[in-house]
Amino acid sequence: VALSEFDLIGRYFSRLSGVGSAVVLGVGDDCALLSPPAGMELAVSVDTLVEGVHFPPAAEPEALGHRSLAVALSDLAAMGAQPSWATLALTLPVAEESWLGAFSRGFYGVAERFRVALVGGDTTRGPLAISVQVGGYVPAGKALRRSGARPGDLVYVTGTLGDAGLGLLIQQRQYFPPAYGLGLRDRLERPTPRVSEGMALLGVASAAIDVSDGLAADLGHILEASGVGAALYLERLPMSDAVCAYVADTGDWNLPLSAGDDYELCLTVPSQRQPTLDEVGADFDCALSWVGVIEKQGGLRCVREGAQGCSLEPRGYRHF
Ligand code: ADP
Ligand code: MG
User: Which atom of ligand 1 is found nearest the CA of 12?
Assistant: First the structure.
């Protein structure tokens, strides 16, 4: 028996979990109704995952559900916004119950963890593509923007860099690690948006961005928006044992510098707020590492101890 569009929505995308006070009406009518809290600004972002572009054909649906919401929430995290709701536009070649069940499980797993209500969406037939729009709230005038970095500010990153990129190299059989880096697959397929970390940085960080296209490229966006440059200390880049081993093995720093999909946060902080940042960072679920300094002169300079500095062309992933 073919699953009708309405059965499909009712069965897999109508859970009432995560509906906070800001949601007046969720899935089922022509629109969702939302009631933004007083004094807050609405932060909105949308991300699309297309089969064959952002994930391989026959990717695990549970991981896709997780990842599609997690990458959208990462943008809210980078602004310091508290996630509230999401909409889901799903384009499917066929309505397959086992696929939908697993996708829905992955999606709601992230939704429940970050208290996001799925309030609506759209379901159409076509080549597999997933668009997730998210909304969150941030105290008016306080959002973390890309444009706030000033010379003398310190540059930090959360977590470790290059894990997702290494996971991808291993998945594509372009690299065979001496010891298989456990957890790299999850880092690629089930990223963790740094939501509580981003919110804790409000009033502390001067600028922030999430690292989706590689640190060099994403820090580059902060530099451009702020009209500044930076020195980045390669030896200070936080790396997992697996990525350290890869860099030692290959001498290639592109993984921690330019590989995408990590969804960590890169932020800047005025030096006088460093003690506050240390306090805030002590409560993070992940590491918080100092990696560089903002400078007046434009561009990104990579510095290695005992070596000549090199100027770096930011080269993250480019679609076009
Ligand atoms: P309309 O034709 O008025 O746009 P739809 O038939 O597309 O309505 O959707 C019916 C209801 O189901 C709407 O509330 C819509 O937001 C919701 N919806 C449709 N697809 C999804 C989905 N994939 N996930 C969540 N909600 C959905
Ligand atoms: Mg519709």
Answer: 24
Give, using CA atoms, the residue closest to atom 27 of ligand 1: 121
pTM: 0.93
Residue bearing the CA closest to ligand 1, atom 3: 30
Query: Could you read off the pLDDT of 67-98 as tens digits, one per residue?
Result: 999 999 999 999 999 999 999 999 999 999 99
- pLDDT of residue 312 exceeding 60, the answer is no
Ligand number, closest to the Cα atom of 117: 1
Residues 34, 201, 182, 62, Cα dihedral to 10°: 0
**Residue 21 neighbours by CB distance under 10 Å:** 8
Of the residues 6, 27, 85, which should be mutated to test ligand 1's pocket, given the most ligand atoms within 8 Å of the CB? 27
